[in-house]
Amino acid sequence: MSADEPAAAGHGFAPPYLLFLGDCTEPGYAKTAFGLRDWAGDRCVGEFALPQASVSAGLERLTMGEAAARGARSLVIGIANSGGKIAPAWIPSLAEALDAGLDIVSGMHARLADIPELRAAAQRSGARLVDIRTPPAGLQVGTGRKRAGKRLLTVGTDCALGKKYTALALQRAMADRGIDADFRASGQTGIMISGGGIALDSVVVDFAAGAAEALSPDAAADHWDVIEGQGSLFHPAYAGVSLALLHGSQPDVFVVCHQPGRTHILGHETYALPSIEEVIELTTMLGRRTNPAIRCGGAAFNTAGMDRAEAHALMEREAARLGLPVADPMIGGPPLARLLDSCLGS
């Protein structure tokens, strides 16, 4: 590995990447592939999918051998499914990647080395099995101690609707203004993009708030940590990690992320999506436990697939209704500037 091509800090995997989409038919479960495409596209050489897949990241379809010939060094599992499972149907293709000399990088809960076929293929080829969802050693329980510096947390009405994208966009917008700011990754895709972080949903629950504190340590008074949110406080399965992240990160300001048109929790169709107002109310109430001054800076809408004029009109109506700025961070422009102004308190 050359000095100018470091592996992702603390995780030991290297670009370029081939994105693995498996047999994915639900776009919401391909958020890792989409995130790498959108925020680390220069590190991606293409994608691989099984015939059953109906989801694509829009990259060139390559075989394992073709990707290796083009210089790919890692096959990244681009799926973030419910429960973080590695499907049996994927294993022959993953073994083929190892035999082609590609490392496998996984953000799933299932451990690669626990799968005998993959362990054997890695031993044959010398390629590596890299699990991103491996928490650092020595995590402590949360203290609730107020830390120096400023913090922004993205929260959501649901999973997989833009919390990571919003955090990345707001950090970039801060940097463009000359503000000292860091993106803090709390999930596997964010770690793959930024090269560091802690996958909060892999931490033993007693230590989750402490992990959030470690993710965003003391900083200079004018420094901002923009923290990637996880799950939703209203999610029937994942609210626990959302609450631990909220308490441990102690945000001064939060941004509610929402996808217009989504009516029910992804993968839990009997649970209706909460309103933005409900999310603001509950986040504020629970967040005051560790930061009494917490406030909402506005909302970030994921309007992908909407007509641009329709999206702008909707965001203007919602901003007037909520009395808060609303923007699509991927569109940017004046609405994003107003959202950032509100978050900064200017």
From TrEMBL:
Protein source organism: Croceicoccus marinus
Superkingdom of this protein's organism: Bacteria
SUPFAM superfamilies named in the record: P-loop containing nucleoside triphosphate hydrolases (SSF52540)
Lineage of the species this protein comes from: Bacteria, Pseudomonadati, Pseudomonadota, Alphaproteobacteria, Sphingomonadales
Keyword Membrane appears in the UniProt entry: no
Domain D-glutamate N-acetyltransferase-like C-terminal: 141-333
Keyword Protein biosynthesis in record: no
Pfam families cross-referenced by the UniProt entry: DUF1611, DUF1611_N
Annotated ranges, domain D-glutamate N-acetyltransferase-like N-terminal: 63-135
Keywords annotated in UniProt: Plasmid
Designated name of the protein: DUF1611 domain-containing protein
